[in-house]
Amino acid sequence: MNELTLDAKLAKTPIDRNIYGHFSEHLGRCIYEGYWVGPESSIPNVRGIRSDVVAALRKIKTPVLRWPGGCFADEYHWMDGIGPHEQRPTMVNTHWGGVVENNHFGTHEFMELCDQLGCEPYICGNVGSGSVQEMSQWVEYITFDGKSPMADLRRANGRAEPWPMKYFGVGNENWGCGGRMTPDYYADLYRRYALYARDYGDNHLYRIACGASGDDYLWTEVLMAKAGDSRALRGRQMDGLALHYYTSVKRLPDGSREGSATEFDEAGWIEIIAKGRFIEELVRKHGTIMDKYDPEKKVAMIIDEWGTWYAVEPGTHPRFLYQQNTMRDALVAALSLDIFNNHADRVRMANIAQTVNVLQAMILTRQEKMLLTPTYHVFEMYAAHQDATLVPVDVRSERYTHAGYDVPAISASASVDAAGRLQITLSNANPNQDLATTLFVRGFPATQLRGRVLQAPTMHAHNTFEQPNQVTPQPFTGARRTAEGVELVLPKMSVVALELQ
Ligand code: AHR
User: Fold this and answer.
1) How far apart are CA 215 and CA 97, in angstroms?
2) Helix, strand, or coil here: 34?
3) CATH of the domain at 114
4) Are the C-beta atoms of residues 73 and 129 closer than 8 Å to each other?
5) How far is the CA of 126 from the centre of ligand 1 (A)?
6) 181: Cβ below 6 Å to ligand 1?
7) 235 pLDDT band (50/70/90 cuts)?
8) What is the pLDDT of residues 12-67, one digit of tens each?
9) CA-closest residue to ligand 1 atom 4
């Protein structure tokens, strides 16, 4: 029996649009080739940034973009990425394959990309190998309007006005690639670095601290106790605490992952679904610790890296993390976004890794060609939740059991948008069975029902450069209005978006 119950009158918590955010790093072909082709390229571009990728990301209403890393962030020295391209020094991207980074994509190019996307920039500063001064000067360079050494340097590089910048990360994975720090040591550093990342004029930074890896609850406890408690600090210094969690089969000692993105059996399907669902436990448990120090939920949980991570596609660079994207990834995206929506009281941003050509990407490119992945289509179908008001849903779902795993088959979330429409997203992770489902809708007298579905005949279905439209959303005809709400048959391994008005 599958029954979902909601009462639109209980809509209360806003779903921050930034839950639909993205993360892009100087890694493999994400920045170079993915976004940046250079102004001389034959690939259509505006000031060096490819136009097809920008148009696709605008369509899913990309709200915020995190850059330059990731592990790259704690090796990045921002001054190498300003000034005339031919004068910028090169560096070795030691973490991601030892390739040469020519720094042609730097601060100005990133801000230009955010302008073209119409999204908020979220810059992650260097704590691991950078100084307090370097970080402080970066903020001054970007946001200071008056006369100062950094603002003058910005002007000399062709940008008169400061850029508005809200989101600023103080280091990345400082427990690992960002400096191998203990939580106590990082918490002290966070307080120091965050202090000198100043607010200039009307620009108010939203400072985000490096958070835990997966279930490292001690990290959250220490960070909240030392830097997240407004009472202890006499004024709030931390606006967000980041959590990183990747869904994968197995992590190898060198950080790479096992398991193909496209070749797996049903055990491989359910393992990834179950591990994807684990993020709900993480959100709840880290959230409980945060509640202890911050009962008013002033500090946001920012899930600034999430998504599936598999072995790289055969024949590609082992450190470029290029992977395909199937219906399995679409299901993980759907259930993760449902979880973030349903915890919108604490989760106010999430950034899937990594937008183009890396990990669970929205977009894959090959020279002038571009394709949209099943994950992209989920983001497009879920975009209606952005800035809508969450409606809690009680989900009674059949279990889906296989190979020792046991998960609810159905995931769902709902919201009322600014136009007063009820948006409901659902997915069925069972690859063998369509599910007859009843949706009890209270407090919302609707006359119209529209739906779309993302489904495919096999678990492995994906889009290729030769066949880019194998998996695309289609009109959904399996639902009908009833006196109680909606009756529908949720197709096996599908994602459905319903709109009632
Ligand atoms: O997204 C790939 C890497 O995963 C990031 O650079 C790092 O922060 C995380 O370990």
Assistant:
1) 28
2) coil
3) 3.20.20.80
4) no
5) 14
6) no
7) low
8) 999 999 999 999 999 999 999 999 999 999 999 999 999 999 999 999 999 999 99
9) 70
What confidence category does residue 333 fall into, taking pLDDT thresholds of 50, 70 and 90? very high
Pairing status of strand 410-416 against strand 422-428: antiparallel
The tokens for 363 are 């977009």
Task: In whole angstroms, give the CA distance from residue 21 to residue 58.
Answer: 12
Atom 9 of ligand 1 has which residue's CA nearest to it? Answer: 70
Residue 9 maps to a domain: no
Same domain as 405, residue 335: no
Helices within 343-460 (DSSP H only): 374-382
Nearest to 493 by CA among 468, 475, 477, 471: 471
CA–CA separation, 55 and 229 (whole Å): 41
Single-letter residue type at 468: P
Which residues, including other chains, have CB under 8 Å from residue 141's CB and lie 6 or more apart?
78, 82, 107, 150, 151, 153, 154
Task: Answer yes or no: 112 catalytic.
Answer: no
Do residues 11 and 399 lie in contact, with contact meaning Cβ atoms separated by under 8 Å? no
Distance CA 450, CA 476 (A): 8
Q: Which of 25, 109, 140, 173 is catalytic?
A: 173
- Does 71 sit in the ligand 1 pocket, CB within 6 Å? yes
3-state class percentages of the chain: helix first, strand second, coil last, to nearest 5: 30, 30, 45
> Does residue 40 have an active-site annotation?
no
- 355 lies in the same domain as 404: no
Instruction: Report the distance separating Cα 173 and Cα 213, nearest Å.
Output: 8
- Cα separation, 76 vs 106, whole angstroms: 10
**Residues whose CB falls within 8 Å of the CB of residue 427, separated by 6 or more in sequence, listed in order:** 331, 334, 335, 338, 410, 411, 412, 490, 494, 495, 496
Judgement on whether residues 332 and 183 belong to the same structural domain of the protein: yes
Q: Which of 353, 384, 415 corresponds to the end of one domain?
A: 384
**What is the extent of the structural domain holding 444?**
393-500
In CATH, what number is assigned to the domain containing residue 435? 2.60.40.1180
DSSP string, 408-419: ESEEEEEEE-TT
Q: Is 16 in the pocket of ligand 1 (CB under 6 A)?
A: no
Q: What are the pLDDT digits (tens) for 448-497? A: 999 999 999 999 999 999 999 999 999 999 999 999 999 999 999 999 99
Residue nearest to atom 2 of ligand 1 (CA): 70
Query: Which of 334, 358, 384 is the C-terminal boundary of a domain?
Result: 384
Q: What is the number of residues in the chain?
A: 501
* Residues 410 and 303 reside in one and the same domain: no
Q: Examine residue 354 and say whether the peptide bond preceding it is cis (omega within 30 degrees of 0).
A: yes
